[in-house]
Amino acid sequence: MAAIAAEQLPRIGGVLFRGFRFDDDAAFRAFASAFGHPLLSYEFGSTPRSQVREGVYTSTEYPAHQVIPLHNEQSYTLQWPMKIWFHCVQPSETGGETPIADSRLVYQRLDPAIRERFAQRRLMYVRNYGNGLDLSWQRAFNTEDRAQVERFCRAQRIGFEWKPDGELRTRQLCQAVARHPVTGEMVWFNQAHLFHVSNLAPHVREALLAVVGSVDELPRNVVYGDGAPLEDDALASIRATLDQCTVRFPWQQGDVLMLDNMLAAHGRSTFTGARRVIVAMAEPAPPGLG
Question: Which parts of the sequence belong to the TauD/TfdA-like domain (predicted)?
């Protein structure tokens, strides 16, 4: 079964395994590991997660009333996992879907002018850690050691600076589109619509800017690679295209969703009641895809 799924994944982008009843989280870990690649740790994360066991994490720990927009895991970096698994341990009472979208289709349906502009100019992600507004650098980098953070940043071509208050700011130039290393197909591959300040509700945006003082001090933001601001209308068009390409299905207890992380974006719907979905990732992307 694992061999068949792995063979089909580059064509269809995702496989839903239904009717599983893993005894515990270790059984899910063993299942994900059976596809031939060691599971990855969650480094340089942008959202809060907790480690369940080695290579297995909670899904993003955002409040139930918040939507997590479609995105490809860690597409705000130059190194990302090629495969990702979601295991539904406990479905929510209502909502709580993990919507998906074909990143090839998103690329094809986007306004060509927007697509080409983003591809040529690339994207610069800016992050300000800590101060109670976002992940601390300690949690994002899984260390208390500044020197270790600096070594990681240099290795990943991430610009960094320690601010006078002791907090960290990073900048990284990344791709907006990418070519899949197996299929050769182009995919829309970035998190501009998620990192940009326009992703926040207007009242939240105004309140946050009042606290931090300027766009440069926002916990996260994104601009073109040359530093110019992204256009709000372009981001609105991108979000509309993602919405048009979205597919939803209700979770059932025991489900496992396996995605090719470049071919399929994922998100999370709002929900009520208890919900537990755990995640594993594997197979670092070959260098130079961005």
Answer: 9-279
Rounded Cα distance between 212 and 254, Å, is 43
Distance between CA 65 and CA 216 in Å, rounded?
28
In sequence order, what are the residues at sequence separation of 6 or more whose Cβ sits closer than 8 angstroms to the Cβ of residue 10? 180, 182, 183, 260, 263
Q: Which among 222, 176, 216 is positioned nearest to 198, based on CA atoms?
A: 222
- Give residue-wise pLDDT tens across range 17-66: 998 788 889 999 999 999 989 999 887 777 778 889 889 999 988 899 99
Please say if the pLDDT value at position 231 is more than 90: yes
Domains, the chain: 2-103+246-284 (3.60.130.10), 110-241 (3.60.130.10)
Residue 231 CA to residue 223 CA, distance in Å, equals: 9
The CA distances from residue 194 to 16, 71, 93, 165, in Å, are 26, 8, 27, 27
Torsion of CA 242, 83, 285, 225, to 10 degrees: 20
Percent of the chain with pLDDT over 70: 98
CA 76, 128, 134, 147 torsion: positive or negative?
positive
Q: φ and ψ at 65, to 5 degrees? A: -85, -5
Whole-prediction pTM: 0.93
